[in-house]
Amino acid sequence: MPSFLDKLKSGADKAAFEADRLVRVNQAQAAVRSAQRDLEAETGALGREVLALHDAGTLTQPELLATCNKIDGLRQQVAALEAEVERVRQEKAPDPSAADVEPAADVPRPVPPPPISRTVAGAPSAPVSQGGTCPNCGSPLRAGVRFCPECGSRVEDV
Q1: pLDDT tens digit string along 27-73?
Q2: HEC string for the chain
């Protein structure tokens, strides 16, 4: 019958083996990742050389020409998208002073209805808008609102 110390030594040997195996697996995986990076770098270099030949007009292999032509289309698409990004970056906010034009004198202005009060049991009474415009900023108001959605002013007197 194996003694307690023999069992302990056997368990320690197994743990040491597993730890060593894990270290070797990690080292092998690191070597695989390094080789994959090198492969990708060399593949990219090959692709750049083929594209340089295509751009120079000296590439003659039809199977490579088809891929290079697809890349040309993608280059044009990227250029168009980059131009759109730049166009959006150059946009200016609308000038708010241009929107503050007074309506013509012959255009009738709406008259806002008087406020109404609603009371909820146990709650203090607060006026509620029936619609119209905000007295602070002039934005149109929906019926029943207590605050202007544009400027946040209380609309008790609308």
Answers
A1: 999 999 999 999 999 999 999 999 999 999 999 999 899 999 999 99
A2: CCCHHHHHHHHHHHHHHHHHHHHHHHHHHHHHHHHHHHHHHHHHHHHHHHHHHHHHCCCCCHHHHHHHHHHHHHHHHHHHHHHHHHHHHHCCCCCHHHHCCCCCCCCCCCCCCCCEEECCCCCCCEEECCCEECCCCCCEECCCCCECCCCCCECCCC
How many Å apart are CA 102 and CA 140, to the nearest integer? Answer: 16
Q: How far lies 56's CA from each of 60, 65, 70, 73, 75, in Å?
A: 11, 12, 16, 17, 16
According to DSSP H, which parts of 57-104 are helical? Answer: 62-90, 96-99
User: pTM of this prediction?
Assistant: 0.44
Residue 27's Cα: distance from chain center in Å? Answer: 37
Q: For residue range 95-105, list pLDDT tens digits in order.
A: 877 655 555 55
What sign does the CA torsion over 61, 67, 73, 76 have? negative
